[in-house]
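STRUCTURE:
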C-alpha cells in the first residue's frame, strides 16, 4: 500500500473515531413519560398471546386474546376472538394526571368503560359501567386481572344486579400463554 493510500485510510479511520465520540456526547432523544413512569408497566403481566379457558374444572376453551403495547409504551391494546368467532377490542392506558388506568372495551352490541389500578396484592381492578346497545341499559361493572404464580392470568368480570343488590359473575377466564 503506498503512502497516499495509507494517509487516506488513516484520515478515514480518525474521522470515524472522532464522529463516534461526538455521537456519544450528543444527547439522545428524550424518553416519553410512558417509557419512564413505572405505572405504564403495571399491566405487563397481561401482555402477550393467550389461549383463554373457563376458570373452572371443565377448562373449556373460550377464545384467544392478543395483548400488545403500542405507541412507545403509552397504550395497551387488546384484540379478542371468542370460541364462537365473536370479536372485541379494548384500549387501555395509564393517566398520570388522574393516577389511574382506564379501559374502553367495544364489542358487537355493548361497551365497557372503567377505571382503576393495582390493588395491594398486585391485581388490576377496574370499576365502571357496561352499556348494552340493544336494550339501552347500563349496569355497574368491574373487572379483576390477577397474575398467577404459573404465569397464567385470571380475568374475572362481575356485573351488579340492582334488583338483588349483588354482584354476579359475568365472565371468569384463565389466560394461558400460547
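SEQUENCE:
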Amino acid at each position: 500500500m503506498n503512502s497516499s493510500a495509507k494517509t487516506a485510510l488513516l484520515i478515514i479511520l480518525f474521522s470515524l473515531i472522532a464522529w463516534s465520540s461526538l455521537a456519544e456526547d450528543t444527547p439522545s432523544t428524550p424518553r416519553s413519560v410512558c417509557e419512564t413512569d413505572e405505572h405504564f408497566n403495571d399491566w405487563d403481566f397481561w401482555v402477550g398471546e393467550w389461549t383463554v379457558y373457563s376458570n373452572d374444572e371443565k377448562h373449556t376453551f373460550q377464545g384467544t386474546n392478543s395483548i400488545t403495547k403500542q405507541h412507545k409504551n403509552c397504550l395497551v391494546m387488546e384484540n379478542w376472538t371468542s370460541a364462537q368467532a365473536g370479536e372485541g377490542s379494548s384500549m387501555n392506558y395509564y393517566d398520570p394526571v388522574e393516577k389511574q388506568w382506564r379501559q374502553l372495551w367495544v364489542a358487537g352490541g355493548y361497551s365497557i368503560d372503567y377505571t382503576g389500578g393495582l390493588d395491594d396484592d398486585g391485581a388490576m381492578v377496574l370499576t365502571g359501567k357496561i352499556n348494552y346497545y340493544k336494550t339501552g341499559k347500563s349496569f355497574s361493572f368491574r373487572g379483576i386481572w390477577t397474575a398467577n404464580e404459573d404465569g397464567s392470568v385470571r380475568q374475572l368480570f362481575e356485573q351488579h344486579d340492582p334488583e338483588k343488590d349483588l354482584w354476579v359473575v359475568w365472565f371468569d377466564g384463565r389466560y394461558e400463554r400460547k
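REMARK: The first strand starts at residue 48 and ends at 54.
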